[in-house]
Specification:
The protein has 2 domains: 5-79, Nucleic acid-binding proteins (OB fold (Dihydrolipoamide Acetyltransferase, E2P)); 82-246, de novo design (two linked rop proteins) (Up-down Bundle), CATH 1.20.1440. By secondary structure, it is α+β, with helices and mostly antiparallel strands. It has helices spanning 82-85, 88-104, 111-127, 131-145, 186-197, 205-213, 215-230, 235-246; strands at 5-19, 23-30, 33-39, 57-65, 70-79, 165-167, 172-174.
Length: 247
């Protein structure tokens, strides 16, 4: 006899793919991690489950599970992120955030904290025109969650307390005596540290505008940081930059 378990969960749909003839397989990010569910007839236009299977949708769903199949059976859409989906730049920023979640989920010591962080950053993206600044802040603050947060307190080379120049390769700041031609100046280092340390409740339009004014060089830093320490480049962030150049 097959035992069927039923549960209700909330989460963010971060991916969907075709499954058999007219169904979908969705990946949902929850406070407990990533889970896959089959949405039967999810491809059909008139399916009541179709809205629950769309990428970048926050849902509360009821699922059934047995030994062979985990299925999404019912639910409601709690947030459709329409203001993000209607704006190509915001959408790419949101997809970049989701991409980080997919890639680094197994690196998080506290999945629930990062899950809440992602949802809060998506809410910030909804309200602001400084979408790129929001993404840069997310990338910078995420470094703590993946275990490679930069050291700003002491020089990464000699240990002195006068560390004011960011060195990406070393993973933090260096002092005047240890800086190289690849170190960033004090102004940019201060901005990067502000992004890293700022609390989400303190992120406002003035701060986002400030970051946006320096977005080109800050993008260079975050991209270099992830490439150097994780051998990873976020494709959606790169696409966002390309589209911004065309505009």
């Amino acid at each position: 006899m097959i035992t069927i378990q039923k549960q209700k969960i909330q989460g963010l749909i971060i991916n969907n793919t075709s499954y058999k003839e007219d169904s979908l397989k969705v990946t949902i990010l929850t406070k407990n991690g990533l889970f896959d569910y089959i949405v039967k007839a999810g491809k059909r236009i008139n399916s009541k489950l179709r809205p629950l299977a769309q990428e970048l949708t926050f849902v509360e769903i009821v699922t059934t599970s047995n030994k062979t199949l985990n299925t999404l059976t019912e639910g409601v859409v709690l947030e459709n992120y329409t203001l993000i989906k209607e704006d190509t730049n915001k959408l790419l920023s949101a997809l970049a955030i989701i991409e980080y979640g997919k890639v680094f989920i197994n690196s998080f010591n506290d999945v629930e904290h990062v899950y809440n962080f992602i949802l809060e950053m998506l809410n910030i993206l909804k309200k602001t025109n400084y979408y790129h600044a929001g993404l840069l802040i997310f990338e910078t603050k995420l470094l703590y969650a993946v275990g490679t947060g930069p050291n700003f307190s002491t020089c990464c080379k000699c240990g002195s307390n006068d560390a004011y120049y960011l060195d990406v390769t070393l993973g933090g700041a260096v002092c005047k005596n240890c800086l190289t031609n690849t170190s960033y100046n004090q102004e940019i280092t201060k901005l990067f540290s502000l992004m890293y340390f700022i609390k989400l409740k303190n992120i406002n339009e003035d701060f986002l505008q400030l970051i946006d004014n320096y977005s080109s060089i800050l993008y260079q830093i975050t991209k270099e940081y992830y490439a150097t320490h994780f051998d990873y480049v976020n494709k959606n962030h790169d696409l966002l930059i390309e589209i911004s150049k065309d505009n």
